[in-house]
C-alpha cells in the first residue's frame, strides 16, 4: 500500500501555463495572490493530506461510520483530523471576506480540494457539501439567515448537507413529498430524505441541512418546490446551538465504498415537526438548490481525478517493486519493464493529466465570471461554465472507473485482495458516476440545455478555440502527428454537433439515445485540446531551459493521449451516427 504524495508539479504547471493564474489575478485586482503564495498553500495542504488524512483512509474503509444512541459516530480519528483541518482555516479558503473567508480564487480552492479527495475521499465529502451549502445560502438566503449561519459554516465550526432525494423520488424531484407548513416566523418540516451524505456526525456542534419541501399551496411538479434551512440544533438568542431540532438520522446505508462517509436516511418532523427557515422565494427552491448542485457537480468531477491519482500512485509503486520476470542470467526484474504494464501506467498518467487540466480550467472559468470586467464578458464565461460543468462531472467520473480498474489490473491477483488497497479505490470511485446526477443526467443537460437550447452556439465557440490550438500545433514541426489527431477529433465533435442539431427535431428519442456518447466525445476532445496546449507550453519551457525530466514526461504523456485516447472520438461518433433506431427497437417485454 503506497503513501499519498500530492503531485504539486503537475498542478502548478496547469495553474501557471494553462490557467495563467498570476495574469488573471493581476487583472482581477487580486494582487496578493501569486505563484509563490499558491505554492505555499499547496505545500501545506499536501502535508495535511499525506500526513493526517491519508493514513485514515484504510481505517475508514474497515471501520466506517456507525449509528448509536448519540446519532452517527464517525470513524475513529476523523474528529481529531477535522479539528486540525478546521483550525488551520481550510474551510474558509475561497469564502467571501464578509463572512470570515480568505477570498482566494475558486481555482485555487479546487486545486487544494484535489488533495483532500485523493488523501481521503470519504472525509473530504463532508467539507465539500459544506461548501455547496455556503454557495446556496450566500446567493439566495435573507441577510438575517446569512448572518446567522454563514460565519460558522465558513469557519468550519458547523457543516452543511443537501437533502433532495426521497424513497419514491430519486432524480425525479417533481415527485418529492416532504412538507413545509408555515408556523409563525418559521416552517414545520415533515418527511424523509435518503442518501444524505454526512447527514449526521459528532465532529461539529451543529449540522445545517438544506432541505427541499413543498408548501401547502405549492403547484405540482418542480415549480412547487421550496428550499429550507433546517439545523440539527436550533439557535439560541446568542446564535449558538440550543435545543435539538426534530431532525435525525434513522439509519445508515451499507455501501460498496466510501464506508467512512455516513450516507444517512434522515427523518424530519417525527414528533412536533422540524423547524425550518425559507431560503429565497416560495416555490423557487430548485433554482436555489441548483446553485449548490452545480458547485457539487464540478466537485464530484474533481473526485474522479482525485481517486484516479490515488490509484495511479499505488499502481506505479507496485509496478516498480513487484518482481515478476526472470532474465537469462537468473536475475529478476519488476513488472514496470513489461510493455503492457507500461501501457496501462501511461494510460492512467495521461488520463489523469487531462482530467486535472480540464478540472482546473473549468474552475477558473467560475473565477472569470466573478471578476469579469463587463456583463458581456461575464455572460461569455458563464456560458463556458455551463458547458463544461456536465463534461467535468460526467467525463472525469466515467474515466475514473477505467483508471481505477487499471490500478487493480496492474496489481494482478493482488489487486483483488483487499489488503493491498487497490480495490478500495475502485470501490470508492464507483459512486462518482451516480451521485449529484448520473452520467445520463449530465449528458441530457449537455445535449439539451447546453446545446439544443442555444442551437449549439456554446459548443461552436469552444470548437473554434480548439481549432486555434490545432493551428498552433500545425505550425510547430514537432507536433504534426498531434495536430492531425486533434484535428480529426475536432472534426468528429463538429459532425456530432451537426447530427444532433439536425436530427433532434425529427426524432424525439435521438437526444437521449446519443447523449452519453456525445458527452464522452466532448470529454475526450477537451482533454486532447488541453493536453495539446500542455505540450506546446512544455516544449517552449524545455527550449528555455526548464526542468527536463518533468517537461519531457509531459510531452510523452501528451503524445500518448493523442495516439491512444483521442481516437476514441471516432468510435463515439460512429455510435452517435447510428442514432436511436436499435436503442428504441425492442418492446419493454423483449428486454
Helix/sheet category: alpha+beta
Count of distinct strands: 14
Number of helices: 18
- CATH architecture annotation of the domain at 54-88 and 120-283: Beta Barrel
Q: How is the main sheet built?
A: 8 strands, mixed
Strand content: 5-15%
CATH fold descriptor of the domain at 54-88 and 120-283: Butyryl-CoA Dehydrogenase, subunit A, domain 2
Mean pLDDT over the residues: 96
Low-confidence stretches: none
The end-to-end distance, rounded to whole angstroms, is 43 Å
Label the overall shape.
globular
Q: What is the CATH domain class of the domain at 54-88 and 120-283?
A: Mainly Beta
Question: Helicity range of the residues?
Answer: 55-70%
- Rg calculated over all Cα atoms: 24 Å
Please give a structural write-up.
The structure is a single chain. By secondary structure, the protein is of the alpha+beta class. Among the domains are: about 55-90 and about 120-285, Butyryl-CoA Dehydrogenase, subunit A, domain 2; about 440-580. It has helices at about 10-20, 20-25, 35-55, 55-60, 80-85, 105-120, 120-140, 145-155, 285-320, 340-370, 375-410, 420-430, 440-445, 455-475, 480-505, 510-545, 550-565, 570-580; strands spanning about 65-70, 70-75, 160-165, 180-185, 185-195, 205-215, 225-230, 235, 240-245, 245-250, 265-270, 275-280, 325, 330-335. Strands 3, 4, 5, 6, 7, 10, 11 and 12 form an 8-stranded mixed β-sheet that branches. The protein has a two-stranded antiparallel ribbon with strand order 1-2. The protein has a two-stranded antiparallel sheet with strand order 8-9. The radius of gyration is 24 Å and the shape is globular. The protein starts with 7 loop residues before the first helix and ends in a 13-residue tail after the last helix.
Amino acid at each position: 500500500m503506497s503513501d499519498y504524495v500530492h503531485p504539486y508539479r503537475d498542478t502548478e504547471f496547469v495553474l501557471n501555463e494553462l490557467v495563467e493564474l498570476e495574469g488573471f489575478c493581476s487583472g482581477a485586482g487580486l494582487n496578493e495572490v501569486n505563484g509563490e503564495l499558491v505554492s505555499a498553500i499547496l505545500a501545506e495542504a499536501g502535508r495535511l493530506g499525506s500526513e493526517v488524512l491519508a493514513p485514515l483512509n484504510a481505517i475508514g474503509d474497515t471501520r466506517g461510520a456507525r449509528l448509536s444512541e448519540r446519532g452517527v459516530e464517525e470513524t475513529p480519528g476523523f474528529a481529531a483530523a477535522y479539528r486540525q483541518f478546521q483550525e488551520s482555516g481550510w474551510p474558509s479558503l475561497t469564502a467571501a471576506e464578509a463572512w470570515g473567508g480568505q477570498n482566494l480564487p475558486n481555482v485555487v480552492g479546487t486545486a487544494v480540494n484535489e488533495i483532500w479527495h485523493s488523501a481521503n475521499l470519504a472525509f473530504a465529502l463532508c467539507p465539500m457539501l459544506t461548501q455547496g451549502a455556503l454557495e446556496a445560502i450566500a446567493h439566495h438566503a435573507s441577510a438575517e439567515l446569512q448572518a446567522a449561519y454563514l460565519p460558522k459554516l465558513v469557519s468550519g465550526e458547523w457543516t452543511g448537507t443537501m437533502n433532495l432525494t426521497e424513497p419514491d423520488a430519486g432524480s425525479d424531484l417533481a415527485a418529492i413529498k416532504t412538507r413545509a407548513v408555515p408556523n409563525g416566523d418559521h416552517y414545520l418540516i415533515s418527511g424523509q430524505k435518503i442518501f444524505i451524505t454526512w447527514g449526521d456526525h459528532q465532529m461539529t456542534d451543529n449540522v445545517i441541512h438544506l432541505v427541499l419541501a413543498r408548501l401547502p399551496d405549492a403547484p405540482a411538479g418542480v415549480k412547487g418546490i421550496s428550499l429550507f434551512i433546517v439545523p440539527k440544533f436550533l439557535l439560541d438568542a446568542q446564535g449558538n446551538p440550543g435545543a435539538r431540532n426534530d431532525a435525525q438520522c434513522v439509519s445508515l446505508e451499507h455501501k460498496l465504498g466510501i464506508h467512512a462517509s455516513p450516507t444517512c436516511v434522515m427523518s424530519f418532523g417525527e414528533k412536533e415537526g422540524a423547524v425550518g427557515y425559507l431560503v429565497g422565494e416560495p416555490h423557487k427552491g430548485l433554482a436555489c438548490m441548483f446553485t449548490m448542485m452545480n458547485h457539487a457537480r464540478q466537485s464530484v468531477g474533481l473526485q474522479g481525478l482525485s481517486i484516479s491519482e490515488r490509484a495511479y500512485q499505488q499502481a506505479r509503486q507496485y509496478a516498480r517493486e513487484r518482481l515478476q520476470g526472470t532474465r537469462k542470467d537468473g536475475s529478476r526484474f519488476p513488472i514496470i519493464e513489461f510493455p503492457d504494464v507500461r501501457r496501462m501506467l501511461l494510460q492512467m498518467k495521461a488520463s489523469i493529466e487531462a482530467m486535472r487540466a480540464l478540472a482546473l480550467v473549468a474552475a477558473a472559468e467560475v473565477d472569470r465570471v466573478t471578476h469579469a470586467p463587463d456583463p458581456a464578458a461575464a455572460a461569455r464565461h458563464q456560458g463556458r461554465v455551463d458547458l463544461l460543468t456536465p463534461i467535468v462531472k460526467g467525463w472525469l467520473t466515467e474515466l475514473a472507473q477505467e483508471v481505477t480498474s487499471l490500478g487493480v489490473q496492474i496489481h494482478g491477483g493482488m489487486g483483488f485482495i483487499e489488503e493491498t488497497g487497490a480495490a478500495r479505490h475502485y470501490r470508492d470511485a464507483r459512486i462518482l458516476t451516480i451521485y449529484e446526477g448520473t452520467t445520463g443526467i449530465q449528458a441530457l443537460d449537455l445535449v439539451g440545455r447546453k446545446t439544443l437550447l442555444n442551437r449549439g452556439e456554446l459548443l461552436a465557440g469552444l470548437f473554434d478555440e480548439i481549432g486555434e490550438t490545432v493551428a498552433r500545433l500545425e505550425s510547430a514541426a514537432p507536433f504534426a502527428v498531434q495536430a492531425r489527431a486533434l484535428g480529426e477529433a475536432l472534426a468528429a465533435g463538429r459532425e456530432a454537433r451537426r447530427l444532433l442539431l439536425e436530427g433532434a427535431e425529427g426524432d424525439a428519442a435521438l437526444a437521449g439515445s446519443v447523449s452519453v456518447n456525445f458527452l464522452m466525445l466532448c470529454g475526450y476532445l477537451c482533454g486532447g485540446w488541453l493536453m495539446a496546449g500542455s505540450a506546446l507550453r512544455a516544449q517552449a519551457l524545455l527550449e528555455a531551459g526548464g526542468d527536463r525530466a518533468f517537461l519531457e514526461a509531459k510531452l510523452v504523456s501528451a503524445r500518448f493521449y493523442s495516439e491512444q485516447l483521442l481516437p476514441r472520438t471516432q468510435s463515439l461518433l460512429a455510435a452517435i451516427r447510428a442514432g436511436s433506431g436499435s436503442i428504441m427497437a425492442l418492446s419493454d417485454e423483449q428486454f
